[in-house]
Design a protein that fits this description.
about 60 residues; flat; mainly alpha
Length: about 60
């Protein structure tokens, strides 16, 4: 597994995940939008912690 990102990208992705969690916690988002953004937040958090985006390697990069 090749790491592909620097610290700046990791911080941005993790910050976005935290922001989405805070918006959900304070009920600024709800319903379908909350589910979609929640899934996106989990993906951002996981990819920033492991520094790997699996679909990027499907294109041969």
């Amino acid at each position: 597994m090749t790491k592909i990102w620097g610290n700046t990208d990791k911080i941005i992705r993790l910050s976005l995940a935290i922001l989405i969690a805070v918006l959900y916690y304070f009920n600024f988002i709800s319903g379908t939008m909350a589910i979609i953004l929640g899934v996106l937040a989990v993906i951002f958090a996981l990819t920033s912690l492991i520094s790997f985006w699996p679909t990027l390697h499907l294109g041969g990069y």
